Amino acid sequence: MPVTRDQILIELERLTLPDGGNLVSRDMIRALTIEGDSVRFVIEAPDPDIARKMDAIRGAAEDLVAALPDVSRVSAILTAHGPSQKAPTPSSAPSDQPPSLKIGGHPKPQTAPLKPAGIKHIVAIGSGKGGVGKSTVSSNLAVALARQGRRVGLLDADIYGPSQPRMMGATKRAASADGKVIEPLHLHGVTMMSIGLMMDEGKAVVWRGPMLMGALQQMIGQVNWGELDVLLVDLPPGTGDVQLTLCQRADVSGAIIVSTPQDVALLDARKAIDMFQTLKTPILGLIENMSTFVCPHCGTESHPFGHGGVAAEADKMGVPLLGALPLDLDTRLAGDGGTPIAAGEGAQAQAYAQLAQRMIATGLF
Ligand SMILES: Nc1ncnc2c1ncn2[C@@H]1O[C@H](COP(=O)(O)OP(=O)(O)OP(=O)(O)O)[C@@H](O)[C@H]1O
Questions:
Q1: Euclidean distance between the first and the last CA atom of the chain, given in angstroms as a whole number
Q2: Domain residues of the chain, as ranges?
Q3: Ligand 1 center to 12 CA (angstroms)
Q4: Whose CA is nearest to atom 12 of ligand 1?
Q5: pLDDT per position in the chain (365 positions), as tens?
Q6: In this structure, what DSSP letter does residue 353 have?
Q7: Which of 15, 16, 106, 237 has its CA 20 to 30 A from that of 347?
Q8: Does 126 show up as a binding residue in the annotation?
Q9: ipTM score
């Protein structure tokens, strides 16, 4: 059985720091990630000088965790936040630094929840595997909820492959009038922010865990979201630092998992579900994407990715199946063209409207 987060933290609590407390009680452990028998985490010191003196503690922490049953690889990285670090400026920021928009200061470690007071609920939209349509579902669901009168925000937290600017038809970058608050875009009735609006297009993002956390922190806490009934967060695929940071810091009300019906996607979807459950984030439901395909020429229905696998999984887990969406050329074209299909009329817009209704029926907002 894989090691659990709690087992690791209990072990790390044994490591007393020279100036009192331990790594856990002093809130220094960040981005704890367990993948099979591999464990990774970041030790965040209050400032670089302290970090430099902590290498022995980092080694001891690795040894303690490595001694746990079912752990064969451990990697602990030391990092620091503090006065001796300088915030990057946008003009000179290389691609391995978090964006700052001149908002001043390196992202600070936070203990208070990240969720701004004006946002009633944060709902994470995740998937185990990439390319299953999580971003397509997020943008269309956001638009469908907005069409039903909800105040909706959409945060594209897919740091490595932001697609919402294209799918939502963004034509300008995010701006900040006062150098502190980032102004989001307002598109198809939805308030939208994406890391893609802060980066040069085509520039690779090469960030370590703490940088990702800083960027996420900025995109939630420093964006002028206004009053929202719900902020949908389009997560990167998988179970990494962004998911962990969001669920641990942002007071997430629930998660929706998008999957295609075939076994390989479901296998990864189960891992995502397991992660949300470990982080005590309620699963609001599953969505089966690319569920069926109706040939536009002969009208025959087929199931290129299998059929019903997500429904069976939802049933097994006792969580609702929020919807099954077909593989549909117009959905793809609409996304590529910057106007989600849910913004128009027709069968697919109707399908997303029903999905939004079912989500509202969960009673969350
Ligand atoms: N139901 C659908 N019918 C047709 N095309 C779809 C459908 N859902 C998604 N697509 C297309 O599949 C591609 C991948 O979708 P999308 O980017 O939404 O997936 P993702 O899970 O967010 O991927 P990533 O992991 O890369 O972020 C896109 O070109 C999108 O237009």
A1: 37
A2: 5-80, 119-361
A3: 40
A4: 133
A5: 788 988 999 999 998 888 888 998 888 887 777 878 888 877 877 776 787 788 889 889 999 999 999 999 888 877 766 543 333 333 334 444 444 543 333 445 555 567 888 999 999 999 988 889 999 999 999 999 999 999 999 999 987 788 999 999 998 888 887 777 889 999 999 999 998 887 766 665 656 666 777 788 888 988 999 999 999 999 988 877 888 888 888 889 999 999 998 877 788 888 888 899 888 899 999 999 999 998 888 988 888 888 888 998 888 888 889 999 999 999 999 999 999 999 999 999 999 999 999 988 877 77
A6: H
A7: 237
A8: no
A9: 0.97
Main-chain phi, psi angles of 154, to 5 degrees: -130, 115
Q: Is the CB of 134 under 6 A from ligand 1?
A: yes
Indicate if ligand 1 lies below 6 Å from the C-beta of 328: yes
Q: Which of 135, 286, 330 to mutate to test the pocket of ligand 1 (most atoms within 8 A of CB)?
A: 135
CATH topology of domain 119-361: Rossmann fold (3.40.50)
CATH number of the 5-80 domain: 3.30.300.130
DSSP 154-186: EEE--TTS--HHHHTT--S--B-SSSSSBB-EE
Q: Which of 205, 135, 123, 203 is nearest to 168 (CA)?
A: 135
